[in-house]
Amino acid sequence: MRYAHGIAFSALLSGIIFNGAAVIKMMGYGLTDFAALQGIWLMYTIWSVISLVILVLPILIVYFRRREILKEVIVFEIGGLAFFSPLWLLLDIELTGDPVYEVLLLGFQNALPIVGLGGQIVGLNLGPIIIIPLLIGSFLLGVFLLRPSFVNRFSETEMADYDDIVVRGVDKEPSKEMHDLPDVSQPTPDEASLDEMRTTLKQIGMSESAIQSVIDAGLTGVTDLLSSSPKTIARSVGIEESQAEEMLVKLQKQVWGARV
What we know:
Elements: H1 3-27, H2 34-65, H3 70-95, H4 100-106, E1 108-115, E2 121-126, H5 128-145, H6 148-153, H7 176-180, H8 191-203, H9 208-216, H10 222-226, H11 230-237, H12 241-259
Antiparallel strand pairs: 1-2
Helix pairs in contact: 1-2, 1-3, 2-3, 3-5, 11-12
């Protein structure tokens, strides 16, 4: 599983759970009838069970279909719930109309449905002493679990080496037609161009050793020399860049003056 896909998957799961609970809470606004409020509480209880199914179902599917990435999916799911749950919770608190600071100071009433002593389903209250450390600890745990280096420990899908990648339609061995192609050697410099360049460079005062260095650098004509930068000439011949610039200026004057 790609890292971005895992993050999106974990954010989606927690988002579905908390946004669904927020929608149910908003449905109860303005209701005063006891039967209607009991119906909203029943919907919230059912949604809590559905939320557990939403969390368990992907793990079961991966277990039977792609067992090799099961550990990776579990890490993404736990880390995503820990990281994104506080964010979704704070966002949904604002969307439902309750100030965040008020909820953090007073806590949640009937936050989670649990089975009471008499076997009835009752709401569990969570005070600020539990809420604030729980949100902070959950967020930090999510940051730790969703680190790429930590997720990679449980990943079975490593990147393949370039040598192991098989490109369809491309043969590793050259075809017979490639073997039958004639060898093409590097073009040899024209003697007339070399003589012209030697003569021109001597006229501007270059020594024989410097001229030979220019030829050895692959500059086999006056045109090649004029089209080269001072930095290239300086590096090839072994002179300072300022000297190469001065040489090019003299060469340009010599060539253009002769042609004019």
